[in-house]
Amino acid sequence: MFAKISKAQPSAMTSGRANSEKWYLEYQSTERSVIDPLTGNTRNVDTREQIKMPFDTLEDAVAYAKANNIPHRVIDRPKSKRIPRSYSENFDYDRKLPWTH
Question: Under a CB-based contact definition with an 8 Å cutoff, are residues 42 and 36 in contact?
Fold first, then answer.
């Protein structure tokens, strides 16, 4: 069983950044998923794939994996660059991009 340590992806449906600084340890199954012939759903006999353990820092997650002899890989996503803007800038006269409804 292999583990992946990474930060949570922010939702595409919101611009909020809550819980984006937490690190998560997730198990990656080495077994293939089986398609259920009756329902068409995929299933896997290994339930560790459903576990997602949160950690405050990367060092805590790596220390846990090493203490429990879990082979792991750290995936660090690039930080997105946000341009701070106010709501009133949507209505500026000299706006760089056209804005219509």
Answer: yes
Cα dihedral 31→41→23→55 (10° resolution):
-90
Task: Give per-residue pLDDT as tens, 1-25.
Answer: 789 999 987 777 777 777 778 999 9
Buried b (16+ CB within 10 A) or exposed e, 29-41: eeeeeeeeeeeee
Opening angle at CA 51, ends 46 and 54, nearest 5: 160
Distance CA 99, CA 101 (A): 7
Q: What is the pTM of this model?
A: 0.69
Q: Which residues, 6 or more positions from 8, have their beta carbon under 8 angstroms from its beta carbon?
A: 19, 20, 22, 24
Amino acid residing at 20: S
Kindly give, in sequence order, each residue whose CB lies less than 8 Å from that of residue 73, ignoring residues fewer than 6 positions away.
Answer: 2, 3, 4, 5
Helix H or strand E encompassing 75: strand 72-75
